[in-house]
């Protein structure tokens, strides 16, 4: 499925200008049909899956209880 720049920006929650910049820098593959740039939606799936994975890892880390202070005594 192909998206216009506007649709891709909404899908990714990015500004349209940022998506245009990604296209110009060659970081995102796009096809120009004579009027609009079209982006394949599938190329973003891996990125979005990785972002969800990182969000879960950060959430687990932040929800991990803080260990009690260890009573360390200097034995010297």
Automatic annotation (TrEMBL):
It comes from the Bacteria. InterPro entries: HTH_17 (IPR041657), SinI_DNA-bd (IPR010093). Residues 2-50 form the Helix-turn-helix domain. One of its GO terms (molecular function) is DNA binding. This is Excisionase family DNA binding protein. It comes from Priestia aryabhattai (Bacillus aryabhattai).
């Amino acid at each position: 499925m192909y998206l216009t720049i506007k649709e891709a920006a909404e899908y990714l929650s990015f500004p349209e200008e940022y998506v245009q910049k990604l296209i110009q820098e060659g970081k995102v593959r796009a096809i120009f049909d004579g009027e609009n740039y079209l982006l394949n939606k599938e190329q973003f799936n891996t990125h979005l899956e990785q972002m969800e994975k990182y969000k879960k890892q950060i959430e687990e880390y932040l929800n991990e209880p803080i260990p009690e202070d260890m009573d360390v005594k200097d034995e010297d």
